[in-house]
Design a protein that fits this description.
alpha/beta; binds pyridoxal-5'-phosphate; 2 domains; seven-stranded mixed β-sheet; three-stranded antiparallel β-sheet
């Protein structure tokens, strides 16, 4: 078998138009978002306006990172130190980190085999705790039944904040991820759907929430220069009562993002061509279980996950090594020792320890692979052949 030579961490180049816009910002010297001439709209404000339009939300705030967007969202939603905040047991470290950053305490909710929030366990955790907020993390782009979720949250008076780091552009029945609750939190870190190295976007339709978040992000008294903010009256008291927790986006990153946002729908189409090809090639193997993707979900296939349900830790390590030997970089969420970007709730020692037997069992057999747009469809077919081959060679096919 020919080894694959592509690089799994290699995203596409920044488009020429974005590079030219970034050079213009640098030539101007006006990199700070409030450094504007006359009534010019800064790139940061233009990004807010355009992202709000894409998302169909009234307001948008550009900020320093996705994790930062979540932490100010929690604060602006009124979460206090010591409060419990519900969140997914399968997520990335910045999510419990954002909850910890406001002094609150994560309560993890189990996931299902389809890698989404387990709504029965959510109801159990709602009744067992005094949590008033769910920070829903649609980890790796998997959306739970959003209609059922919203109805449970409404019945119990729980606020919804969405972590959309992997669901920018994803939809449940034509409604964009991020539009189901009080706010949506997005990341423009290199490995997400828009790439400015680091960056975050927060959206909402709630004027007071957004005024608080804008002040928190470090807007000084210059909030009326933003691209998609509530009217000045909303800020009248909030501006004096809200701390400045400096975490703005700068014009350079915004300039790099604007052309990418205009091309987002095309990127989604290309991600899904790649995802669907790999999913098709892997789905024929008995040993491999792909999460079911319900017809209500318009996903963005920027990564793929699959399970080898009864794999032992030794088999999982052998499987990773055999793929790596042939150039295919998989991640495994079942390792006791967190590596790279994969840590799990056992490694977050600052959080109260919690028993999550279902999640643990799922993670023990869960593999994950990035699908950068720098890969061609032929690359994706090659990768699929390698994975199929290693499953067969290690005789994992019998496992069920
Ligand atoms: C990347 C990521 C974040 C946070 O994004 P940053 O911009 O890196 O802070 C949040 N949630 C998930 C699931 C992520 O993958």
């Amino acid at each position: 078998m020919d080894p694959f030579r592509g690089v799994f961490t290699q995203q596409e180049a920044i488009p020429d138009e974005a590079i030219a816009a970034a050079v213009d910002v640098m030539r101007s010297g006006r990199l700070h978002r409030y450094n504007t001439l006359g009534d010019e709209l800064s790139p940061a404000s233009e990004l807010e306006r355009n992202f709000a339009a894409y998302q169909g939300s009234r307001y948008c705030l550009a900020c320093a990172s996705g994790g930062y967007a979540m932490s100010i969202a929690l604060r602006a939603a009124g979460v206090q130190p010591g409060d419990h905040v519900l969140t997914n047991s399968f997520t990335l470290a910045p999510v419990p980190g954002a909850i910890a950053s406001v002094g609150a305490r994560p309560v993890f909710v189990e996931i299902t085999e389809n890698l989404v929030l387990d709504l029965a366990d959510l109801e159990a955790k709602i009744s067992e705790t005094d949590a008033k907020v769910l920070l829903l993390s649609s980890m790796r782009g998997h959306l739970c039944d959003m209609d059922a979720l919203v109805s449970i949250l409404e019945d119990n008076g729980i606020l919804l904040l969405e972590d959309c780091a992997h669901t920018m552009g994803a939809k449940w029945k034509d409604r964009l991820s991020g539009n189901f609750g009080l706010a949506g939190c997005f990341s423009t870190q290199t490995y997400k759907h828009l790439n400015s190295g680091e960056g975050g976007l927060l959206t909402s339709n709630d004027p007071e929430f957004m005024a608080r978040a804008t002040m928190l992000s470090g807007s000084y008294m210059l909030y009326d220069r933003h691209g998609a903010v509530p009217a000045s009256e909303t800020f009248e008291d909030i501006r004096l009562e809200t701390a400045n927790m400096s975490g703005r986006m700068d014009n350079l990153r915004a300039a790099v993002l604007l052309p990418q946002l205009a091309a987002l729908e095309d990127s989604i189409r290309r991600w899904n061509e790649r995802y669907d090809l790999i999913a098709r090639q892997l789905s024929g193997l008995g040993a491999i279980q792909l999460p079911h993707r319900p017809p209500e979900e318009r996903y963005v296939g920027s990564s793929i996950q699959f399970r080898l349900p009864s794999v032992t830790p030794d088999q999982a390590r052998a499987f990773l090594a055999a793929n790596k030997n042939l150039g295919v970089e998989l991640k495994w969420f079942g390792d006791d020792n967190p590596v790279g970007f994969t840590s799990n709730h056992h490694s977050w020692k600052y959080v109260d320890p919690q028993k999550l037997p279902v999640t643990d069992q799922i993670l023990a057999g869960l593999f994950d692979m990035r699908i950068p747009l720098s890969f061609t469809l032929e690359d994706c077919a090659h990768i699929s052949r390698i994975i199929r081959n290693t499953v067969e060679e290690l005789s994992l096919s019998g496992a069920a």
